[in-house]
Task: structure prediction
Amino acid sequence: MNKSRSKAALINSSVATIAQVILILAQFISRTFFIKTLGSEYLGLNGLFVNLLSMLNLAELGIGNAITFSLFKPLIDNNKAQISAIMRLLKKWYRMIAVIVFVGGIILMPFIPKLIHKPVFSNIQLWIFFFLALMGTISTYLLSYKRTLLIANQEGYINTINTVGFSVGQQIIQILFLIVYPNFYIYLIIQLLANLFSNINISRLVDKKYPYLKDFNISVDKDVLKYFKKNVTGMISAKLGGVVVNGTDNLVISFFLGLATVGKYANYTLITTGLTAILTQAVSAVSASVGNLAVSKNDSKEKEVRVFNQYFSITIIVSLVMAVGIAAFSTAFVTLWIGKGYVLSHLTVFLISLNFFIQAVRQSVITYANSYGLYWQQRYKPIFESVLNLLVSIILIKYTGLGLSAVLIGTIASNILVNLWWEPYVVFKYGFQQKVTRFLFQYYVLIITGGLVLEGVLFIGYQISNILFAVLFTSVAIIISIGVIVSVIWILGIKIQIPKRIYKGGASR
Result:
């Protein structure tokens, strides 16, 4: 990366990581008051709504990412007219999406009560709750398209600061109302208003920073429009798998096990989602710089692979350390945070940490796939991913006593059997234009050995803790200490050789 590209990546990554830490702390505080005042049933209901709306949320399926990629070249060329044209097209599409999401939500609304095992709320309550949550999602489409320009121009930190500011403000107000007047209706209304004001403010900032957006009235170039027609469809398809896999987990849990189980699981996913968000923000914050590198004519494919290797190395090391921390700390944290009644089984906690490790390791590859605009090439992946996930989850949850663990096994299976080979294949073949064979071999070796390290650390740590009759946090300290030692040995023994091997193997055609 050149100096300005590296500097932009560093600023965006640093701000995004710090902001995510702040958001996580605010979410934990807010979640604490939510559970104490409204209870696990409301918590499970909120988690179910989040998953249902994520499946309706077409913008999050990647249209914004696809158009972000199309902005890289006109920004490098300082083609203001084309930038303006692309932004007008994005505005038009987002408004269409808002209508589609609204109609989809209204169609889904009557079925909400049937998705809950032994519902404790009336149908009218469920419909009103969902409608407010739906409007909160739709509000994000009104002016949020302007965030895309900041991200594409390597100024995502501006959007991050705006987002974290309004999000923290939202949660402070929600906490105050939960203390004074705990009401789920008001909780959702505050969320809706916060989204609106956040988007209005970011729109004002973008208009001030890029006044030329209103100075041109031309159409998008035919080549760019052709790219949209092909790759936006591919982007939606590629992202759909992840949304279905992650979005249907709570749906399956709610239908077979009930909202209380969704609520318990949600407390652990708050931990894993928060850590994933930190890693994703730190990693994906450099996506604009990666995209800039991809369209730059001054950089070779060899340099792109070399940068990827460094990027991948950091991601996988951090992923394992975080996964060990989740396995060791999550149960202790939940116990002290909200009580033993919300603690999940040892097997479930292990699967949660293993799933986190796999998802986290994928982030570097996903970032490159997004930054290179490789959406069309992944259009069939979600079909296999989602079908496999649902089949394994439903079969295990119906015919075994695994319960919540069954759903996690389904997610892990879809990742291992589909995502872990498909995503690198697309990046290496269409992005780097090099062979992926050696990387795939090393990739799976790292996943398998990392999983074994995680399981071994937990087993040894718990055995030592039992022998020493260690108290809760002593056990955590023992497990984390063992985890750090074993992780360092694993990194030195296996990981340190990966960059050279990948590069050597990848460079051969």
